[in-house]
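Hey team,

Filing this mostly as a record. A colleague (T.K.) asked me to run one chain through the structure pipeline before their review meeting, and I want the input and output archived in the tracker in case anyone asks later how it was produced. No errors, nothing strange. Just documentation.

Input sequence:
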Amino acid sequence: MERFVPGEITTLTVKREVPFGYFLTNGKEEVLLPKNETEHLLAIEEPVTVFLYHDHQGRLCATTKTPKITNETYGWVEVADVVPKLGVFVNIGISKDVLVSVDDLPTLPSLWPQRGDMLYCSLKTDKRGRLLAQLATDEVMKEIAIKAPESVFNQNICGRVYRVIKVGAFIISDVGYLGFIHESQRRREPRLGEAVEGRIIGVKEDGTVNVSLLPRKHESIDEDAQMIYRYMESRGGAMPYSDKSDPEDIQARFQMSKAAFKRALGRLMKEKKVYQESGWTYTVKEK
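Output structure:
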């Protein structure tokens, strides 16, 4: 018989009962099934299907609860906790959360998943024998994806970030399209596991799509104008920026291009909400 492997679902036989659980066997080794890990009373010699994992003390044990992922299967799991320098823990549907190691996460902690984010994972055992969750590779994501038709061009898209690189982020949409967000098509860098909403700006021959998280021009004017006006209100109705300000300063403060800034500022001036004077912009009520 093969040795027990954490992360697998297997059928074992009840060998004996103890006050705190049942010892199961595969004919060679034994493993404990705690009584709080099964909803049924078991009889000696009864076969039982269990999932093998390490408890909080690092001991191999069994549960009759069905996990969301195994060594052989992938699934979406929720981030339950973030531990600096260690990684993030994901809820796989059993009593113990499983670690996604820091070695498998982005170098920048700001791009790590946060609690509530979702990751597409399976399980693995590392060289030290620890049961870990591992992120799906590009090849795995391609296997579950569907090709996008050309007709989806310019449509809105919702998805999850499953990989981040220096020049952008990869997502899979809620309907299964694979997409790429170039760094030029975002105001901030999305984190791994984050849910994002954008629009499709290109459909490739292989059925993948290019995605922009930037709003359409007519939408961005309203959004940008509101952002600028809220910023001015937070400063008492004045800001040291105008349509003559340096593009770098505007980008650093508002994460928008100078052209977008001027369009939004023009909207506010047309609506007589703001005015400019000596390189500053003021809300009209402050004049």
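Quick notes for T.K.: The radius of gyration is 27 Å. Residues 217-234 form the longest helix (18 residues).
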